[in-house]
Amino acid sequence: MSRPTIQFGGQPMGFPVRRIAALVPIVLLAIGLLTTYYSVPADATGVVLRFGKFHTLQDPGLHFKLPFGIDEVELVPVKRQLKLEFGFMPLDTPTNPDQASESPEMERSMVTGDTSSAMVEWIVQYHVEDPKLYLFHVRKPASTLRDLSEAVMREVIGDRTVEEVITTGRQEIETVALLRLRELAAAYQLGTGIDLLQLKNVNPPREVQTSFNEVNKAQQDRENMINIANGEYNKVVPKATGEAEQKISNAEGYRLKRVNEALGDVLAFNSVLAEYLKAPEVTRTRIYLETMKDVLPQMQNTWIVDERVTQLLPMLQTGAATKEVQK
């Protein structure tokens, strides 16, 4: 019995079919060996699918699986900070295909609560918390998160005036929008955690940019003048308050001094009065003599006065004679 051969163009090629059949198991074995292991990066988690259905989660490292497509592995970057940018095109090449919008002009154009227009640019940073939910619960979770973020921002901007959006209310807008976006992400079970929502450039439309700049400059001048006035107030008022307190303190000291002196005089008078009541004549004479001792040296002329005479007789006419008499 002759060995079968393969013919091409009516001419036998001489390559036996049995050799091809013998190579098939070797090829299948090589394919099986190559598809029995996989590696999970350090910043990711491996989601193993068996016949297309979720099977298990694998940590970073080298792992084995069933070959020939029975097990498939999806790598989810759970330890990587992902970012979505709204209203502008990023300068660098986005690693996330949903990072930047295809129509930033339409995305950043918003209407405020006072029916004014504002151009709002912002970013959202998030990470994957639950790989299973992220892959299987919502189709295109990053795109869904992008739509939710835009809806939340338009809702928050629509509740505020254009002045709040552009100047004073940026911090509040970021806080309220972040909390609202976290609530929606949890309600939709996206499997993501929202880390940051930050406003970038918030400007009026280009057509009214000049008017808004003038208004902002006027507001800044107003704030500057208020700050200068407050500085002068803080400089003058404490000084006046200190001087007033010092005068009040001096007055209190003077009052205490006079009161204490008066009390001392009262005590001295009471002590003299008590002695006077014990011996009125002696006390009266002592007081008279002490008084005369203080008064007479100060007199320039000496006069003798008698209540029985009707005129005053000068005893000495000169101050020198008076001093001689005093000696």
Q: What features would you describe in this structure?
A:
This protein is an alpha+beta fold and 327 residues long. The chain has four domains: 15-41 and 51-71, no CATH class; 82-204, Band 7 domain (Tetrahydropterin Synthase, Chain A), CATH 3.30.479.30; 206-278; 279-326, no CATH class. The protein is 51% helix and 20% strand. The protein has nine helices and 13 strands. It has helices spanning 17-34, 104-108, 131-136, 141-157, 162-168, 170-188, 209-278, 280-295, 319-326; strands spanning 7-8, 11-12, 37-40, 45-50, 53-58, 61-64, 71-76, 82-86, 109-111, 117-128, 192-203, 303-304, 313-314. Strands 8, 9, 10 and 11 form a four-stranded antiparallel beta sheet that branches. Helix 7 packs across helix 8.
What's the topology here?
Elements (H helix, E strand, L loop, with lengths): L6 E2 L2 E2 L4 H18 L2 E4 L4 E6 L2 E6 L2 E4 L6 E6 L5 E5 L17 H5 E3 L5 E12 L2 H6 L4 H17 L4 H7 L1 H19 L3 E12 L5 H70 L1 H16 L7 E2 L8 E2 L4 H8 L1
Antiparallel strand pairs: 1-2, 3-6, 4-5, 4-7, 8-10, 9-10, 10-11, 12-13
Helix pairs in contact: 4-6, 7-8
List keywords for this structure.
single chain; 327 residues; alpha+beta; three-stranded antiparallel beta sheet; 20% strand
Structure at a glance:
This protein has 327 residues and is α+β, with helices and mostly antiparallel strands.
Summarize the biggest pleated sheet: 4 strands, antiparallel
If you compute it from the alpha carbons, what radius of gyration comes out, rounded to the nearest whole angstrom?
A: 53 Å
Name the structural class. Answer: alpha+beta
Provide a count of the helices: 9
